[in-house]
UniProtKB/TrEMBL annotation:
One of its GO terms (molecular function) is phosphoribosylglycinamide formyltransferase activity. It comes from the Bacteria. This is Phosphoribosylglycinamide formyltransferase. It is an enzyme of class 2 (transferase). GO terms for cellular component: cytosol. InterPro entries: Formyl_transf_N, Formyl_transf_N_sf, GART, GART_AS. It comes from Vineibacter terrae. Catalyzes the transfer of a formyl group from 10-formyltetrahydrofolate to 5-phospho-ribosyl-glycinamide (GAR), producing 5-phospho-ribosyl-N-formylglycinamide (FGAR) and tetrahydrofolate.
Length: 219
């Protein structure tokens, strides 16, 4: 079976990009990264792509009159590279409705909370302020509902009584680095299916994985 071609969108340091590049470098990994796209020329993650010999391009969002025009330019670059699945890795842009419609069920994101709890920004502080005992990371499909798409997999970490937003973020980031390559592998192995749920987001089913297999516990 041919390896699935993924494209990764970044805006910053690219720590999750690095974990995906490392995973895809293994000969038996069923996904290859065909293109990295950054909306910022100074993004540190571009150096990771260069080091792994993966094509990368910069498409500055400020060069476009509106979100959709930028999204279409990104989409054209992904299509030209033969990308089949898009992975967001610290991509700090909100899409116009066009992009998730064009790439429906083919965009993955990793969010630093246990969705549906704590959507949006500053989620580690949200968890601390709410008195949460557990937080974590979620890989989900992207829809036009911000942080509201079907959940693929989650990793849970404890929230310590003395945590700050920074210490909790560091613990969650380690969990992200384990979770994202695992979820990407499932897509490459063509294990992921969507089951419709009337009136609710589709439910993700991962063939051959026990129900608890989509949850990582990271103490």
């Amino acid at each position: 079976m041919a390896r699935l071609k993924a494209g990764v969108l970044i805006s910053g340091r690219g720590s999750n990009l690095l974990t995906l590049l490392e995973a895809c470098a293994a000969p038996d990994f069923p996904v290859e990264i065909a293109l990295v796209v950054s909306n910022r020329p100074e993004a540190g993650g571009l150096s990771h792509a260069q080091r792994f010999g993966v094509p990368a391009t910069v498409i500055p969002h400020r060069d476009f009159p509106d979100r959709e025009a930028f999204d279409r330019a990104v989409g054209a670059a992904l299509e030209a590279a033969g990308v089949e699945l898009v992975c967001l890795a610290g991509f700090m842009r909100i899409f116009s409705p066009w992009f998730p419609a064009r790439w429906a069920n083919r965009i993955l994101n990793i969010h630093p909370s246990l969705l549906p709890a704590f959507k949006g920004l500053h989620v580690q502080q949200q968890a601390i302020d709410a008195g949460a005992r557990v937080s974590g990371a979620t890989v989900h499909l992207v829809t036009d509902d911000l942080d509201g798409g079907p959940i693929v997999a989650q990793a849970a970490v404890p929230v310590h009584p003395d945590d700050t937003a920074d210490t909790l973020a560091a613990r969650i980031l380690k969990a992200e680095h384990a979770l994202y390559p695992l979820a990407l592998r499932w897509f490459g192995e063509r294990r992921v299916r969507l089951v419709p749920q009337p009136g609710k987001p589709d439910r993700v089913v991962i063939d051959g994985i026990a129900p608890g297999g989509a949850i990582l516990w990271r103490p």
